[in-house]
Amino acid sequence: MPTPTDLGLPETPAFRHEVDAETELELYRSMERLRRFEKRAYDLFLQSLVKGTSHLSLGQEAIAAAFGASMRPGDWTFATYRGHAHTLARGVEMAPIMAELLGRGTGLMAGKGGSMHLTSVEHGVMGSYAIIGAHLTIANGAAWSAKLRGTDQVAVCFFGDGTTNIGAFHEALNLAATWKLPVVFVCENNQWMEYTPIGSVTAVPRPAADRASAYGLEPVVVDGNDATEMYGAAQDALRHARSGRGPVLMEALTYRHGGHSRADPAKYRPAEEVEPWLLRDPLVTYRAHLVRKGVDEGVLKAIDEEVLREVDDATESAKNAPQPDLTLIERDVWADGSSAWRN
Amino acid sequence: MTLMTYRDAVARGIAQELERDDSVVFLGEDIGAAGGVFKATGGLLGKFGPLRVADTPISEQAILGAAMGAAMTGLRPIAEIMFSDFLAVCWDLIANEIAKTRYMTNGQISLPLVIRTGNGGGLRFGAQHSQSLENWAMAVPGLKVVAPSTPEDVIGLLAAAVRDPDPVMFFEHKGLYSMKGEVPDGEIVDTLGTAKVRRRGTDCTILALAAMVPRALKAADVLAAAGINATVVDVRSLVPLDTATILDAVARTGQLFTVEENPRLCGWGAEIVSVVVEEIWDDLDGAPIRITTPHVPLPSSDTLEDATIPSVTRIVDTVRKVME
Ligand SMILES: Cc1ncc(C[n+]2csc(CCOP(=O)(O)OP(=O)(O)O)c2C)c(N)n1
Ligand SMILES: [Mg+2]
């Protein structure tokens, strides 16, 4: 088993918090849901049932799960095109997400958004955004509104390492810091953009953390494959933002198990890099951690089975769901439900 | 009634809405302490405070992102993009995010926000500070597009835009800021998607927008002296488009001219001409004629710029040639 240092991870876990037994199982279940859902989404893509594209969070589950378990109901999630995990982690049911991936009428957005734009306002998932960088600025707006309206809501914005090199990232951080907005920026550094290693196109070793000081922020680096540490980091970050002390920029180190999107076999990544990361699979290591702590394996197995049933049911219901009604095409451009551009 | 400039009408319009509704906020570069680079937003910071009138860094994407995120969580922001030319650096927020989010989320997210911007030429600012870009916005489903030509309309249409549940692009014309007009006292609220007939004539119909409206009206006076009586319609709102008023005005006279400040290709007049030709062909006496800026970036020299943007003389000459 490679050590954290072998993988360039921070040496001492900085965010060890006591996690109570109930939360431990919640984290485990959440990661298991994300893992099983993503694997199924991949299978369905290969069967041409998921059309277009899909970007999976396989290997990165601990980050979404930790925040999902830590955020309050009124808090807002802003995700990217790699957003299935973040949507699920806020408690959205699998069936409408699966149906959205299949383009069906029962989809989360009735088939009008697709895999890259999962949104469930009632769960605080304020959208998944597919143009790099924009949603950092939008998360600021939600945080600004919380501040102006005097609520203690926090906006949490997830994005990749590659996103730290676009202008919107820098505009968003500067404004968030200047206005002291209650927003947590979570960079999931999975080491790669689409097909280019982040280190080859970035001026500093840590794409997010090394930029923090430019905005007067503390650099925060977390082992994104350690669910316990991620949970502690999420708790700290949310507390900081909620207490009016301004934004947090967090860099969670992780690795995607598969390709960038669709059926990408990710052959461009050297085996020496991939293998150690696969060994530090966040789900496998967390399960081992729980068993070591004395959690009954039967309990974990029961969770695995429940989650598998949930995925099976979601798959069946999505496959059997009706196609979207064609009247949707010209609906909901405007708030009155229409798309009329003239009288 | 009060005689006031288009510039002062902007501040009055924003103040009217800030006063009425606590959820209205205003943000942009140099808008607060400095009162705006066009001095159109003076006094608002003092009256409403820095929380609701927020000076921002030079970060157009961050400005519009903040407006969008605030709009989806209960506020009604008015964002200023100083010159419309700068829309190019935040077009992602406008065209990909703000315009499409309601549709992509199947109606889950509403974005009641207004993007105000200084648009248009005539001030010798050169090609990067003078463009008329309404047609960029018009080409994107999900954006309402308004361009007032009088101080009264600035207030009324701005109020309608702020109260509208959808995103509205509000194009103020830089060349009109010093123009004066009579404005009624008290609250003014207009209706989006309505054109206004500014002058009635029987011989031809001239459609114009923003700074081209006063030019079309002057041209109509000159033409009247030459025996040609023109109807002049101020289009005001490109999306939604008041085709009812426009088609009625064109059908009555049988001859259409558009006066457009934008470069020729894909200007708003092209869309209107296509509607007119498809729907009231039999009422036309001749081909619709578009009077536009040629398809060039705007030059800065006063001599060149004046000869590039449609002028009163060009409107008069074009109409006379066709009508005589
Ligand atoms: C503005 C913009 N440029 C390029 C792309 C194409 N693109 C989609 S994902 C991606 C890689 C993003 O890398 P990163 O931020 O590390 O996120 P990851 O996919 O690794 O989660 C690129 C270049 C895009 N969607 N938007
Ligand atoms: Mg990446």
Key phrases:
heterodimer; A: 343 residues; alpha/beta; Rossmann fold; 11 helices; B: 324 residues; 2 domains; 5-stranded mixed sheet; binds thiamine diphosphate; binds magnesium ion; Transketolase-like_Pyr-bd (chain B); magnesium ion binding (chain B); Pyruvate dehydrogenase E1 component beta subunit (chain B)
Give the arrangement of secondary structure elements.
The complex is a heterodimer of chains A (343) and B (324).
Chain A: H1 21-46, H2 61-70, E1 76-80, H3 84-89, H4 94-101, E2 125-129, H5 134-149, E3 155-160, H6 167-178, E4 183-189, H7 209-212, E5 220-223, H8 227-242, E6 248-253, H9 271-279, H10 282-292, H11 297-320
Parallel strand pairs in A: 1-2, 1-3, 3-4, 4-6, 5-6
Chain B: E1 2-5, H1 6-20, E2 24-28, H2 44-52, E3 53-55, H3 60-71, E4 76-83, H4 91-98, H5 101-104, E5 114-119, H6 134-138, E6 144-146, H7 151-163, E7 168-173, E8 180-183, E9 196-199, E10 204-208, H8 212-225, E11 230-234, E12 237-239, H9 243-253, E13 256-263, H10 268-279, E14 289-293, H11 302-308, H12 312-323
Parallel strand pairs in B: 2-3, 2-4, 4-5, 5-7, 6-7, 10-11, 10-13, 13-14
Antiparallel strand pairs in B: 1-8, 6-12, 9-11
Bound molecules: thiamine diphosphate and magnesium ion.
The site of magnesium ion has 6 residues of chain A, from loops.
InterPro entries (chain A): DH_E1 (IPR001017), PDH_E1_Alpha_Subunit (IPR050642), THDP-binding (IPR029061)
GO biological process, one term (chain A): pyruvate decarboxylation to acetyl-CoA
Keywords (chain A): Oxidoreductase, Pyruvate, Thiamine pyrophosphate
